[in-house]
Amino acid sequence: MGEMTWPEFAARKDKPVIVPIGSTEQHSQHLPMCVDALLAEHLATDLAEAVDGTVMPTIVYGYKSKPLSGGGPLFPGTIDMNGATVVAQMHDVLREIVDDGFTRIVVMNAHFENEAFIVEAIDLVTRETSGKATIIETNWWDPLPQDVVDQVFDGLTFPGWALEHAAVTETSLMLHYAPELVHMDRMTYRDVVEPKPYVRYPVRDGDVPAYGGLADPSGSSAERGRLIAESCVTAVADICRHEFGI
């Protein structure tokens, strides 16, 4: 969309429009801080090709990382938004799209903590516009069938999605989409992280391993990343066809 003229964009009102949102957040020693934003954008682009959609500019800042799903304020460069900021920005973007006449909208999220605030914005826009648009929100990991997860972690240990930060799935997706930004020679993993059954503030040194990772990224590969990406896009494209009637 950012590379289109406004008449070109306006001419696509009957097509799906996809809003990618990620974060700017530390991803251990071997991945850049743009991981979530980059993955959201690439997956949105692949989805657009599958459903003849238009990709909006990526929202690169997201909600605060919880201590055991990223570490947030413990690491320089992680830019955390307040919840009200995430809701307000997503609300305004979606409201503008609906007011422009688009009625088939997908939000492609790649940052775990964003979802509640995205859904709040979607709910507000839906109420304000009397449901003029069908709006779908998905995290890239949610539509993955269990058999695909099993294939991705064949020979490896799946630590659970909460700890899959800068680990096998994100590293593999980055090797698939942007291998030049992955530094496997800097990969660090020392500690078995035990997730706490509660959240405690203030965040303290030691809540997250000092190197920033939560689970073992060993075994990551571009092929595993391709499998994740293709499965996600296929599933979300099917959702779009069902929900949008295309």
Q: What does this 3D model show about the protein?
A:
- This protein is α/β, with parallel strands linked by helices and 246 residues long.
- It has one domain: 3-Layer(aba) Sandwich (Rossmann fold), CATH 3.40.50.
- The protein contains 7 helices and 6 strands; from the N terminus they run αβαβββαβαβααα.
- The strands form 2 sheets. It has a 4-stranded parallel β-sheet, sandwiched between helices. A two-stranded parallel sheet has the order 3-4.
- The longest helix has 23 residues.
Summarize the structure.
The chain has 246 residues and is of the alpha/beta class. It is 38% helix and 9% strand.
How far apart, in Å, are the first and last alpha carbons?
20 Å
**Overall tally of domains:** 1
| CATH-defined topology | Rossmann fold
Number of strands: 6
Task: Please describe the biggest sheet, giving its number of strands, its sense, and whether it closes into a barrel.
Answer: 4 strands, parallel
Q: Could you say which structural class the secondary elements and strand pairing correspond to?
A: alpha/beta
DSSP summary: helix tally: 7
| Morphology | globular
CATH homology superfamily name: Creatininase
User: CATH architecture, please?
Assistant: 3-Layer(aba) Sandwich
Helix residue percentage:
25-40%
